[in-house]
Amino acid sequence: MSVTEQARRARAAANELATATRTVKDAALRAMADALVSRTPEILTANAADVETGREAGLSTALLDRLALSAERVAGMADGLRQMAALADPVGEVVRGATLPNGLELRQMRVPFGVVGIIYEARPNVTADAAGICLKSGNAVLLRGSSSAVRSNTAIVAALRDAVGGAGLPADAIQLLDATSRDSVKELMRARGLVDVLIPRGGASLIRTVVEESTVPVIETGVGNCHVYVDAAADLDKALAIVLNAKTQRLSTCNTAESLLVHADVAAAFLPRVLAALHEAGVTVHGSPEVAAFSDAVVAATDEDYATEYLSADIAATVVDSLDAAVEHIRRYGTGHTEAIVTDSVPAAREFVARVDAAAVMVNASTRFTDGGEFGFGAEIGISTQKLHARGPMGLPELTSTKYVVTGDGHIRS
Fold first, then answer.
1. Cβ atoms of 228 and 240 closer than 8 Å
2. What is the largest CA-CA distance in the chain?
3. How does pLDDT run across 131-185, given as a tens digit for each residue?
4. DSSP annotation of 286
5. Residues 67, 148: contact at Cβ < 8 Å?
6. What span, in angstroms and rounded, lies between the C-alpha atoms of 272 and 281?
7. 268-303 burial string, b = 16+ CB within 10 Å, else e?
8. Distance (Å, rounded) from C-alpha 327 to C-alpha 349?
9. For residues 176 and 36, what is the distance between their CA atoms, to the nearest angstrom?
């Protein structure tokens, strides 16, 4: 089936979803969760084949980690759908309203986009998250995963479609596009008029291609070259815990710290501790000469290292002379995702927050908290690094647009 035909089916499904009640949508979400659990063996068998193929193809450790599922991860996907069912329905929410001087009643209400296309790499858990968040927000979804996860995604979508159809909603609200041909991506990017918005999730190359070549409006999710800046006024015990968590809690996510900046005033006290801890955790530090002076295990950093989203057991590190220098470094190399400062100075924290341009800024907290679930939004569709419509973790409200409803009593304009 062509992408155009799938998009037409999605449009028909979206028309039905737009008027579905919360009760019906939540029942479908719970049915989707149950289907994932009951069909876990089938999903894991498909995933094992994908992982083996990926290993033979030489996929990196980070990509294999993103690709791999386990019974626990499938259960987590199901739990995410159940949690989503418990969240408020954004559709119909009145964003603002007023009675105008002429007596007209004005309301701005949230409405679904309609048909959402998602292009993503490797992670099959995105399949369930995206399907769930789109359904809850009243949108039909066209999923274009990577060829490396084709068996996993096929098994997951089959389970979800059966559950949605069994709950009384159109199964075509969730559709998987052909991942074995690049033509499906091109068709999706050109489906303006049938697809309302396109969301790319993946590496810089994928996102750039979609943004530059799509005729469908794009919500840009970005790569995460996230920094942790340890200020002169930092509590070094807290700083050590935050750096280790931000770098090592999970290596392959976009909110993992990829760069460490340490103020010169605390470098001698902090760097030996953090370098030893990172080395013990198996992390390779790509450091400036000032950093390398404290450990023979440090690899000399290049300019490219400071601009790299590693998604691996690597981190770039340098010493800065001031908060100004830290901000300038972040402005030069950051990707606008998540930046963190560790400090006990309220003025320093306020200045960092005011001057750093990012979707999320952490004060004395790990970058790993930039996540829809951690923010209480439920499963997210991605983390937007653009500045239009949505920025940061994109929860249910960010998957809606608005329309104005104006109610009068025979009003005419003079």
1. no
2. 81
3. 999 999 999 999 999 999 999 999 999 999 999 999 999 999 999 999 988 899 9
4. E
5. yes
6. 14
7. eebbeebbebbeeeebebbbbeebbebbeebeebee
8. 12
9. 16
In the block, which residue shows the tokens 């359904």?
135
- Which amino acid appears at position 142 of this protein? L
C-alpha 297 chain-centroid distance: 33
Integer-rounded Cα Rg, in Å, for the chain is: 23
Joined together, the tokens standing for residue 175 give 């559709």
User: What is the rounded distance in angstroms from the CA atom of residue 25 to the CA atom of residue 17?
Assistant: 8
> Rounded to an integer, what distance in angstroms lies between the CA atom of residue 120 and that of residue 130?
10
Confirm if 381 and 120 have CB atoms less than 8 A apart: no
**247-282 pLDDT per residue, tens:** 999 888 899 999 999 999 999 999 999 999 999 999
CA distance 223 to 243: 19
Contacts of 238 (CB under 8 A, 6+ apart): 342, 364
What's the rounded Cα separation, in Å, for the pair 134 and 394? 11
Smallest CA-to-CA distance from 115 within 187, 207, 199, 24 is with 199
Letter for the amino acid at 158? A
Q: How far apart, in Å, do the first and last CA atoms of the chain sit?
A: 53
Cα–Cα dist 60/39, whole Å: 28
Residues 6+ apart with CB under 8 A from 48: none
Nearest CA among 181, 112, 170, 115 for reference residue 147: 181
Cα–Cα distance, 48 to 68 (Å, whole number): 8
